[in-house]
Amino acid sequence: MKYLGRLNPQDPLFAYLRDDVYPQILPNDQVRNFRVFQFPASNEVFLYEETHSQQKVIGKFFQRPGKDPQNAWERAWNEWQNLHYLRNIGLNHKHFHIPQAFGIARHMNSLVVEEYCPGQSLSSVMSQSLAEHHEDLLYARLTDLAWFLAKLHNHTAGAETVHFHTQFPYFDKIVARLQRRHRITETQMREVYGFRDQWQKSPCMWSDQAVLIHGDATPSNFLFAHPRTIIAIDFERMKRADRAYDLGMIAGEIKHHFLRNNHHGEQAEPFIGHFLWEYSTHFPDRQAAFAAITRRIPFYMGMTLLRIARNSWLDWRYSQILVHAALSVLRR
């Protein structure tokens, strides 16, 4: 993290942290000052540390320059509401941790202030596992992540079945951005939509119960602390959908990690299989659950690879590797 200095006492945020947020953390202590740090690769997320107690909180500003303020407020409100909801339904216990939300302020660029929860991200775990040839570490963390997602999904399953077509607007948005950035050809676009049509006709994509999904299950949004505690963050995109959405996103991210770091995407397969098998242990019929999930995973995994390929910080050549990998996965 980058140290930015101390928060100006004349800044309205200083008074908000002092008067509204920190009394929830330090009810009997006097707040003196705040150090400010910026998270890497983020212009909107900051860490604030009270100088005397060294107690830390996270400040997430959802309003970005030039963006719709109403949309920013809705995203902030979603994050706020979802954190409270998950803690209230029992997703916060000794092995799973959901950050506490301390405050929300629309007039401060749609700010949400949350508990700071340190831990090693899944991204870091994958890098360490690959660099140190420590496969058991990644297997163990994927077991824990599967446990958390199964708990989230199964605890919130309802009677309504999945509406598969609700994923299409996001799918279209991904492909449109790939096209604008010249990362997908017309022929590849026709293939992508042809494959999607085939998935749409498959009964398995519509048959499961809808559950609450994380909605942004990227490796940076899952942190691991000892002993065997998993911390889940960034719930602004949580929604009701197919459980395979979260699982396919994790699978796609694992595939991407191996493709990018050692150019052998096939080496991701044992880890993906382990993750899905461990997830399936949380069902009465493990074999049936595994079979049902793995039938649907390729669509969401392929969509994830396309989503990653659209990122401008990736070079064009690697984006093509991801697009080809996505086509291979989507092909039935």
Secondary-structure blueprint:
Blueprint: E1 2-6, H1 12-21, E2 34-38, E3 45-50, E4 56-61, H2 69-88, E5 96-97, E6 101-105, E7 111-115, E8 120-121, H3 122-132, H4 135-155, H5 168-180, H6 186-200, H7 204-207, E9 211-213, E10 222-225, E11 229-232, E12 239-241, H8 243-262, H9 269-280, H10 286-309, H11 316-330
Parallel strand pairs: 5-11
Antiparallel strand pairs: 1-2, 2-3, 3-4, 4-7, 6-7, 8-10, 9-12, 10-11
Helix pairs in contact: 3-4, 4-9, 5-10, 8-9, 8-10, 9-10, 10-11
Structure, described:
The structure is a single chain. This protein is an alpha+beta fold and 332 residues long. It has two domains: 2-115, 2-Layer Sandwich (Phosphorylase Kinase, domain 1); 120-330, Aminoglycoside phosphotransferase (APH), C-terminal lobe (Aminoglycoside 3'-phosphotransferase, Chain: A, domain 2), CATH 3.90.1200.10. The chain contains eleven helices and twelve strands. The protein has a six-stranded antiparallel beta sheet, with helices on both faces. A four-stranded mixed beta sheet has the order 5-11-10-8. The chain has a two-stranded antiparallel ribbon with strand order 9-12. Strand 10 (222-225) and strand 11 form a beta hairpin. Helix 4 (135-155) runs parallel beside helix 9 (269-280) and helix 9 (269-280) packs across helix 10 (286-309). The protein is globular. Pfam families: APH (PF01636). This is Aminoglycoside phosphotransferase domain-containing protein. It comes from Acidithiobacillus thiooxidans ATCC 19377. InterPro entries: AGP_Transferase, Aminoglycoside_PTrfase, Kinase-like_dom_sf. Residues 41-272 form the Aminoglycoside phosphotransferase domain.
